[in-house]
Amino acid sequence: MEKDVFCSIIAGDIPSTRLQEDNSFVAIKDIHPKAQHHYLIIPKKHIESIDDVENSDRDLMGDMVLFAQQCAKTLNLEGYKLLVNVGEKGGQEVPHIHLHLLGGEFYR
Ligand code: 5GP
């Protein structure tokens, strides 16, 4: 398995600003924020993209949404967007599944 930047962040080899963490997920501040609040919800299990999700990942995917919901609560967001880029042609830069949590003022 190829090590990507998020695997290195999870391992603590690359620093990040962590909002929340549990056994399965970490939420970090995006290094190039597109909104006032821009966090990445990253499963610790390496799955490349939504295209690679398997039946056995059903619970993990549900838990990822609940983890994002908790992060939004921590940030006191009244509304927010959850966004997933899938594959290079879908705008995905980092080959490790993640949700973008975006809230507050959006940047152009
Ligand atoms: P994607 O295009 O794959 O959906 O989004 C990847 C996101 O990861 C981008 O918004 C990018 O700014 C962010 N990112 C890439 N490298 C790093 C990093 O080393 N640290 C942090 N905190 N974010 C990163």
UniProtKB/TrEMBL annotation:
<dbReference type="InterPro" id="IPR001310">
    <property type="entry name" value="Histidine_triad_HIT"/>
</dbReference>
<dbReference type="InterPro" id="IPR019808">
    <property type="entry name" value="Histidine_triad_CS"/>
</dbReference>
<feature type="short sequence motif" description="Histidine triad motif">
    <location>
        <begin position="96"/>
        <end position="100"/>
    </location>
</feature>
<protein>
    <submittedName>
        <fullName>Histidine triad nucleotide-binding protein</fullName>
    </submittedName>
</protein>
<feature type="domain" description="HIT">
    <location>
        <begin position="5"/>
        <end position="108"/>
    </location>
</feature>
<dbReference type="InterPro" id="IPR011146">
    <property type="entry name" value="HIT-like"/>
</dbReference>
<dbReference type="GO" id="GO:0003824">
    <property type="term" value="F:catalytic activity"/>
</dbReference>
<feature type="active site" description="Tele-AMP-histidine intermediate">
    <location>
        <position position="98"/>
    </location>
</feature>
<dbReference type="Pfam" id="PF11969">
    <property type="entry name" value="DcpS_C"/>
</dbReference>
<dbReference type="InterPro" id="IPR036265">
    <property type="entry name" value="HIT-like_sf"/>
</dbReference>
